[in-house]
Design a protein that fits this description.
By secondary structure, the chain is an alpha/beta fold. The chain contains five helices and four strands. 39% of the residues lie in helices and 18% in strands.
Length: 94
């Protein structure tokens, strides 16, 4: 499925895997913050979110790591790359 369409039509959940401090410095409206290092311990929480998950971070590296882990564990998810890109797609649906 097209990531841009998922974001624009609110078909899933946007998960920002940056640190709390980074997230508070700017983030996508309605996204949730689960830092990369907390992904394994918060797996059940992630499993219960509306899927697919769109993962984002500062540059796309951490969200790629999260995507690899989650997809290997059966969660439908996509690497949205930098949060600013995800934010741009989200702003286009207004």
């Amino acid at each position: 499925m097209n990531i841009e369409k998922i974001i624009q039509e609110n078909l899933g959940t946007i998960v920002d895997v940056r640190t709390y401090g980074e997230f508070m410095g700017g983030n996508v409206v309605d996204s949730i913050n689960i830092p990369l290092n907390e992904i394994p311990e918060r797996f059940e929480e992630l499993k219960n979110l509306k899927s697919p998950l769109i993962l984002c971070c500062a540059s796309g590296g951490r969200s790629e790591q999260a995507q690899n882990f989650l997809s290997q564990n059966g969660i439908e998810c996509y690497n949205g790359g930098p949060w600013q890109n995800v934010n741009f797609y989200k702003s286009k649906n207004k």
